[in-house]
Each structure stands twice: as C-alpha cells, then as structure tokens.
Specification:
By secondary structure, the protein is α/β, with parallel strands linked by helices. The protein contains twelve helices and seven strands. The protein has one domain: Rossmann fold (3-Layer(aba) Sandwich). It starts with 5 loop residues before the first strand and ends with a helix. The protein is globular. Strands 1-3-2-4-5-6-7 form a seven-stranded mixed beta sheet, with helices on both faces.
Length: 275
Amino acid sequence: MAALKPFHNTYRCIGNAVDEAPDLVLLHGWGLHSIVWDDVMPALLHHFRVTVIDLPGMGQSPLPNQDYTLDFLVDQVREVMPAHCHLVGWSLGGLVAIRLAQRFPQQILSLVTVACSPCFVARDDWPAAMRADILQKFAELYEEDNEGTLIRFLALNAKGSDTQQQDVAKLRDILYFCGLPAPRALREGLVILRDTDLRDALAELKQPALMLFGEHDHIVPAAALDAVSALAPQVDVALMQGVSHVPHVSAPDIFLRALQDFWQERVPAIKGREQ
C-alpha cells in the first residue's frame, strides 16, 4: 500500500533549534489540501516545527485501495505525524483531530478545531448542524458534475465572509494547485461527514482543547458553539466575527490571535516559548 506523505514535509522554526521547537500538525478539510494553511504558516513557524499533511486522495497524497473511513484517515495521519504534537484541524480535519485525540491521548498535547462540529449533520438532539437533506443533495450534485460542485462548495465556504470574493478566488487557486481530488476520496469523505458522531469523544477529552466557529459560517452554524459548550464544558469555544468557514484564509490575523490566546492561556509549554 502506498504510504501517505506530508506534502510540505516538516517546516523548521526559524531562529529555534529543531529539537526545542514543539511540533504542530495541521489537517485540512474536505475537497482541498494542505496549501490552504499557507497564509498562516509564517506566523506559526516562529513558535513551532509544523507538519502539514494532505489527507489520502487529496493534494499530493495517494488514495490507497481500502475502505475510506474516519479511522482509516486517523491511522494514515498517525503514520506520519510526530510522536507528540499539538493539532489544528479544519472541518473534516477537525473530526480526524478529535478522533486522534480520543484514540491516542498520550500523543496529542492540545487540540484546536476550526469550523468543525463533532456531529456535522443535524439530529433530533443536535439541531445546530447542517440538515441531512442538504448534504444528500450536495452528494447527488457531485455525482452529476464533480468539478462544478467543487467550485460551488468553495463559494459556500466563503459565503458571508467580509472578504467573500477574494476568498473564493484564493480557494480556487488552492484547489487547482495540486489538481482535483480523487472522486472516491470526496464521495467517502461526504459519508464520513454524514455518519460521524464524536459527541461522546468530545465530552471525554482530557487535553486542552479549543473549538473555533465563524460568525457567518454556512456549513457549520455558529449556533453549534452553544451546543458544544453544553456538551463539553472543559473545551474552550470562541466565535470569530466577520468570517465564514475558512477563517485561516479570510482573516488570518483574527485566526492566529485566537490560537495564540488559547495556547498562552491553556498550554504552558507553548506559553513559555512566546517572545
């Protein structure tokens, strides 16, 4: 089986000895790849050695011929991530990050999810989420027009942002930089989003954790913030104003400030490295 590989390899922190810099792993979401993090990378490199990973079938990572499940993604990421690290996961990558923290708590030092809900699809006891029929319609449209549906998805990512037009243009550039993702990875990725329910895992998290939500997110509604607070009071939550589903693209300064505030408050090892 072809091994998943980090697209950018490992960044080394400028001005820091490699052995001293804490490790940070960034996980992207459905339909895109690791270059989606590039706008925030320079700031992160002041404090971390950063590994960014293309999930299987996206970016430059191959698509192994086996069942494409959440635990498969978790196992693939674990093969290439550092032994002990801090995690940031966006959207689908946030689900991977939560599951990693649940299965391998000794390896995950802290966790941040971005525009992610432990349960993406609305249920009777979890209404602050995407309606199941909307996700199903999206899956049907993808079968009719793969590329066109991806482009519409990019627009939905940026919808409501204060910089919506610029965000869509930037996301299109990112999408085409590595070529379109493997269709099977996208189909099965939608199934993961539809079926995954990590509410119990989130409620039991022991690591310092932050969940970031966008004020104008049309994929993961901002109302999920209150639901997460009630479910997992030990998890920090924050609402970023004026942003949609891609705050690291549309408002990198706001996004980075939220990360820094969390790390300084909740993660002593990182706080000690602030200059």
